[in-house]
Hints:
This protein is an alpha+beta fold. It has one helix at 31-52; strands at residues 2-4, 17-19. Strands 1-2 form a two-stranded parallel ribbon. Keywords: Membrane, Transmembrane, Transmembrane helix.
Amino acid sequence: MIKIKDGWNAARHDEPVKVERGFAMSDLSIFPVAVFSGMVLSFAVIMLFAVLTDRDPSKS
């Protein structure tokens, strides 16, 4: 039985594979996902604030 630290290489082997940890992804691979989702969320909050506080220039 082959011991593989992450589950991504497990599909290349025909033998039964034992994943050492419970998570298939390493802890480092969640970092770009967290950064990207944080950027998208902050952009959505800024755009929502800009739309809600928009002033019509013709009424001023």
